[in-house]
Amino acid sequence: MLLDPDAPFEAADIRISGDTIVEVGPNLRAQDEEVLDATEKLVMPGLINAHTHSGQSLDRGLVPSLPLDLWLMWVVYGGVKQTPDEAYTTAAAGALEMLHTGCTAVLDQAWIPTADFEAHSDAIMSAYADLGLRATVAAMVQDRDVYESFPLDLVPDHPVPAPLSRPEDPERLAEQVATFIDRWTGKREQLIPIPGPSAPQRCSDEFLARIAEVAAARGIKVHTHLLETKSQVFATRHRYGKSVVEHLADLRLLGPQMSFAHCVWLDGSEYKTLRDAGSVLVHNPISNVRCGSGLLPLGPLLRMGMPVALGADGAASNDNQNMFEVLKFATLIHTLYGDFRQWPPATQVWRACLRGGAAAIGQAIGAIAPGAKGDLVVLGLDRHALRPKEQMVTSLVMAEHGESVETVVVGGTVVLKDGRSTRVSESDLIRRSRAFMTRANDEFDRRKHIYGSAEALISAMLDEVTARDLPVHRLAAVDGFEDFEAPIV
Ligand SMILES: [Zn+2]
Description:
The protein is an alpha/beta fold. Helices cover about 40% and strands about 15% of the residues. It is built from 15 helices and 15 strands. The protein has helices spanning about 70-75, 85-100, 115-130, 170-185, 205-220, 230-240, 245-250, 270-275, 285-290, 300-305, 325-335, 345-360, 390-400, 425-440, 445-465, and strands spanning about 15, 20-25, 40-45, 45-50, 105-110, 135-140, 190-195, 220-225, 260, 280-285, 310, 375-380, 405-410, 415, 420. The protein has a five-stranded antiparallel sheet, with helices on one face. A four-stranded parallel sheet has the order 4-5-6-7, with helices on both faces. The radius of gyration is 22 Å and the shape is globular. The N and C termini lie far apart (about 50 Å). The model has no long low-confidence stretch (mean pLDDT about 95). Bound molecules: zinc ion.
């Protein structure tokens, strides 16, 4: 049975030639192709994870729930500095987890250390090539120190913190990104290198303007974070003297080439500007709750025709890379506000994952139709009864974790068969992953130390942010309880 957002839910055959679906219909006659028998199974387009950070794939269970600005100290500045070999391992581990849980394409905003740009970026691309996952890799860099990106001015007489990163030359950094893109473009159809500046407030305008040129000259996409937290509204308003969305337009970084992760704290007119520009918004509901960032208005955004994709975000703010969990969470969390008749149903969230994800990546994926890439997931039906389409999708979104995933095809190639990778030794990868996780565990005290040195100033800043009102509200208000002073264990 084929389960596609726009096609009837019925039994049919799929013919793939090269990496593309060329025919879909009943009783197709096999020519000289390999035949994959999916009788009594369900076949759906592979899920699309439109925002993650591969370097965090094994950073799970070690990060406390913290507001993003403090979380950055744990994860980015306190995190283990990976070797290229370890970057390969973490990217491969994330890719394997995605394949096991029915995801066939990722937009990985991968942090690349500038001192080791080529080896590190090549390691990540090689991991995706080896595992067979379709990957758009957005080279994540920034040329400003993280402290410059915080609204520290809100804290009266605050100490001036020592920078946490060395200064970067914007021109040289843009050149490194451009070189990476040119080295990998066209090498493999499934791997797309693009720029991924970390966030506007973490980059200089000179660097962002150069990135806009690099992308325009090559006709490629750009991916970045945008207004994930309330503190970023204050930081960007203060810096630009206007909305960061208007500022991005000035820098030629609004348009259909852009996808923006998070977009929690935009106001109505900013969302409209993004929609009118044809940009894609990537919703990361688990990460946004894990870091207390807030909740964007998903239902209203979908109703206004905003292209919305879904992302797991890095494992350090999610703890896994399971897109079925993201689908379920996105379906559940938006029942906390608004008219119940307008809660986005599971079917709409699933469609957003496929359609929005395809738009963010810019390839013909997320569909079972002639012309689409042959990215398919075959699921067993032991855990799901066959039922009408809408309930079938709801059953997958609400009750599936990936246990039913049997076979995964990416670009017409079987990359997972009977639940095992056809490309790499999973036990070897587990051994490598364990070695890295042990090293990360051993550095726990160092992380605590780096976090501790930043905690007082950032906490004071967050208190100032909390005390101030904005025209938009994205955090829950729960009241009517006593605050008992029991110790938190
Ligand atoms: Zn992110």
